Amino acid sequence: MTRSSCHSRDDLTSTDGINVWQALFDSVTDPIFVHDADMRIVRANLAYAQYAGMPIGELLGRPYWEVFPKNDGPITSFVHASGTGEQKNGEFTLKSGETFTSSAFPIKDGSGQICYSLHIMKDISSHKRSEIASQLGAQVFLHSTEGMMVTDANNTILAINPAFTRITGYNESDIIGKTPRILHSGQQDKAFYQAMWRALTNEGHWRGEIRNRRKDGEIYTESLVINTIYNPDGTVSRRIALFSNITEKKKLEEQIWHQANFDSLTGLPNRRLFHDRLTQGIKRTHREHAKLALIFLDLDHFKEVNDALGHDMGDTLLSEAARRITSCVRESDTVARMGGDEFTIILPLLNHTGGIDYITENILKQLAEPFALGAEQAFVTASIGIALYPDDASDIESLISKADQAMYAAKNLGRNRSCYFTSALQETAQNRMRLTSDLRAALAGSQFLVYYQPIIELATGNVHKAEALIRWQHPVRGVIAPDEFIPLAEETGMIVTIGDWVFKQAACQVKRLRALHHADFQISVNESLAQFRSDASLFKTWFSHFHELELAEPAIVIEITENLLMDNSSVITDKLLAFRDAGIQVALDDFGTGYSTLSYLKKFHIDYLKIDRMFVNNLEQNADNVALCEAIIVMAHKLRLKVIAEGVETEAQRKILADAGCDYAQGYLFSKPVPAAELEAFLHIAPDLDLDRSGNALA
After folding, report:
1. Fold match between domain 9-124 and domain 144-250
2. Which residues, other chains included, contact 412 with Cβ-Cβ below 8 Å and sequence gap of 6+?
3. Looking at residue 552, what DSSP letter applies?
4. What is 9-124's CATH number?
5. Confidence of residue 545 (pLDDT cuts 50, 70, 90)
6. Closest CA to 324 of 354, 364, 372, 356
7. CATH assignment of 449-689, given 3.20.20.70, 3.30.565.10, 3.40.50.300, 3.20.20.450?
8. Right CATH for 144-250 from 3.40.50.150, 3.40.640.10, 3.40.30.10, 3.30.450.20
9. CA distance 221 to 214
10. pLDDT exceeds 50 at position 348
């Protein structure tokens, strides 16, 4: 490009068509400019001027690299077009990060010499950023250590990344076209997934932890985030799940939590966890209107053993002491080590205080046994203090303080003993002694009464069964609830005589009801473990009484609890078999609240399962309780057992149980426990009861 052969800039601007030419330039939205052989701008449009940030008049005559695009000199693609006379397309990025494409066109004069270059540029920054983001996204998707999964609006899996395969074991051919249900471990319930989908529907995202199953069956824990991508019209386009395997992290967290909350020597809860357990125990005890016992225990003379035999032997003694103490309490109780030789025990949800003495006496007995410490034997005892919630204190600190004071009182009284905190408990002990004395006189004084609660056949409304329940009409205190005196009767052994009287009363009553009401009427009688362990000759008198009354089988049902079945002694087994041979049926009471007894249901020829009232309560609001009841009913029917639901108090509960196929029900919806005469009156009107209207005749 030679300067002498080209028109000057003034020649180019002096043409008559300049206005048309400029208008054409300005109508183009992309930047356009023309430079001469010296790279100086001779023409530009408005778009170029806007990018340059100055009026067109100020642009003319300047080298373009001083205006726009600013650079250290001529751009290579521009020079190439000017020098070769060929169109050249290029791309360049400014220091600001903006990216442009450029098409350079040489302009020649009549002799074929290149006089000017026309440059049309296009801002592709946005497109470039999108392209880079797309490439980056693809790289992240492929190389991320976190698993990724993309599903459509129907929850069908469309894509997974390599990390997904590494974490789950599933590759694309296994998973594409399926739903995430393939990962379900069964360790989250229906409510969990309902809450997840509610969040996705309402908020478009969900974050949490979930336990899923790998292809090889291994269960793992993942931290999961799900986000929703929407179409322009607001409908769901895609859902993207991002997750990582946090199984090892959870194990580490659990290990750290365990170290923070459990004593490293004994494995017992430490002071921190003790406070948490006590807080929760008090809250639950308060809700249940029960009692809680807090026991403080200090080993007597432990310091002497530790000093004489060394800390290692002392640690061995502490570990063995912890094991012995734990063996004396229920699984629901908490034994904690407070530090040194001090232990605490939390006994929540006590309906009566009689069991506290049994536990503390057993602990004292166990700790009094010698401790084998290498070649030596050591002997220690314990001082035990007891405080009750809410009797002695209504807050944690006061309860702890009073239990501690009671423990020191036990030490002051000579050690190797337990001591209650308040005189109120001493009064309770005195009342217990008086009640025991009164109980001995109650049977001779005809103070016991047998009440009967009707049992309704849900399918028909027929009443051909009832449960016998004892009541004590005390001459001074009035009616005493069975929960108060039955445990005392069991501990003193009087339950055997009382139980014999109840059985014979029920037998006489069932004979009468069979004559007056229905030939197949049955009455069920509760029998405790203490009765079963008693002399077998007493049960034989029952069979004789049966024959004397000429009662046909099966008139009586014996109700037992699950803990009785767990006693594998021949005494229990032989008596249950003897009942069967005598035509006495057996019902398993409070089913599901004790130990698992499924393997014993057929072994001991159980005839009825009684669903405990804790499962019947809140059936209308608690789907889990409904599911449990349904499961018990289905299982029982598969084993050819009949099912009786206890504690039915509402029409809604009755309907749910009936719809689930439950055979019988009892509760205040139908009738409270009533004397024999009122039972007979109830049976007289029972055929007229409309169960759909929740008749409540005697409640």
Report:
1. yes
2. none
3. P
4. 3.30.450.20
5. confident
6. 364
7. 3.20.20.450
8. 3.30.450.20
9. 10
10. yes
Indicate the domain borders of the chain. 9-124, 144-250, 262-421, 449-689
pLDDT band at 144 (very low <50, low <70, confident <90, very high): confident
Q: In whole angstroms, what is the distance from residue 403 CA to residue 207 CA?
A: 45
Give, in order, the Cα–Cα distances in Å from 496 to each of 58, 307, 486: 117, 51, 11
Percent of the chain with pLDDT over 90: 48
| Burial annotation 421-455 (CB, 10 A radius, 16+ → b, else e) | bbeebeebeeebeebeebbeebeeeebbebbbbbb
In this predicted model, what pLDDT tens digit does every residue of 285-336 receive, in sequence order?
999 999 999 999 999 989 888 877 888 999 999 999 999 999 999 999 999 9
Report the amino acid identity of residue 439.
L
- Cis before residue 69, ω within 30 degrees of 0? yes
CATH 3.30.70.270 fits domain 262-421: yes
99, two tokens: 């990216």
Structure tokens at 133: 């983001």
What is the distance between the alpha carbons of residues 174 and 584, in angstroms, rounded to a whole number?
A: 59
* Burial classification of residue 164, based on how many CB atoms lie within 10 Å of its CB (0-12 exposed, 13-18 middle, 19 or more buried): buried
